[in-house]
Write a structure and sequence with these properties.
single chain, about 250 residues, alpha/beta, 60s Ribosomal Protein L30, Chain: A, 2 domains, three-stranded mixed beta sheet, 5 helices, 6 strands
């Protein structure tokens, strides 16, 4: 009964259980999603003119299931046909960013930048980027999560991502606004330091104006960072983006 007299222990235990469940569900769903996408890809490839020549592999380089496929084959095909194949695979619901095995990255027309937003939101459902108390300094324990967010944003060519900071309503709202803005700027700077283009990120603070749906304004869970695609920009191919001669 001593355990019950320490509610904070029960709360922490419940939170850990929720996180474990989230990871278990995500891990269980990933192979099924990858298998479903892989099953749908051949028909899309065939319709775009790549039957028997192009395959879509829904695995990451380390072998994990992924919804970001790598396309192989199709070297004899023209660039227009290769582009059509990439678009067709990208149009399969649930598919993320696409690349060819020879390194030709698919630019904005070949995938929806909203995939990146969805990937980041999935990362943040079970975890939160945390800051030192009353500060905009990101906690050391959250640096690995920022690494994952940067990797999820990397395929967002042509997208401008808004990083928004939020607080609960404790304290003066003027300070809440300032702190939420500083924290958004800190996350933006951390992502730029990890290779995300500076012009691809904007930052703003909302203070306590937008609590999470269903939460009281004073709930600490309102202290959060959100990511949102706010616009897309046409890209001018660089020598890295331009397909090499075949």
């Amino acid at each position: 009964m001593k355990f019950l007299r320490k509610p904070q222990v029960a709360i922490v235990g419940g939170m850990l259980a929720c996180v474990a469940l989230a990871y278990t569900v995500a891990g269980a769903n990933a192979p099924a999603l990858a298998d479903r996408l892989a099953a749908a890809a051949p028909a899309a490839i065939e319709a775009a003119g790549g039957a028997g020549q192009v395959e879509a592999h829904f695995r990451s380089p380390n072998g994990w299931p992924s919804r970001h496929p790598v396309l192989t084959g199709g070297e004899p095909l023209g660039e227009n046909t290769r582009a059509a194949i990439a678009r067709a695979v990208a149009d399969i619901p649930g598919v993320g960013g696409i690349r060819w095995s020879d390194g030709d990255m698919m630019v904005e027309d070949y995938f929806s930048p909203l995939h990146c937003q969805e990937d980041v939101q999935a990362l943040l459902r079970a975890r939160t980027i945390r800051f030192e108390e009353g500060s905009a300094r990101i906690e050391a324990a959250s640096q690995s999560l920022v690494d994952e967010v940067a990797r999820a944003l990397s395929p967002c060519l042509g997208a401008v991502i808004e990083v928004t900071g939020h607080t609960d309503d404790s304290g003066a709202e003027e300070r809440n606004l300032q702190l939420s803005r500083e924290r958004a700027e800190a996350v933006r700077a951390a992502l730029v330091g990890r290779g995300i283009p500076e012009e691809a990120l904007s930052a703003k603070g909302e203070g306590s104006a937008r609590p999470v749906d269903g939460l009281e304004p004073g709930d600490p869970a309102n202290r959060r960072i959100e990511f949102r695609v706010i616009s897309t920009q046409p890209l001018i191919p660089t020598p890295v983006d331009t397909p090499a001669p075949r």
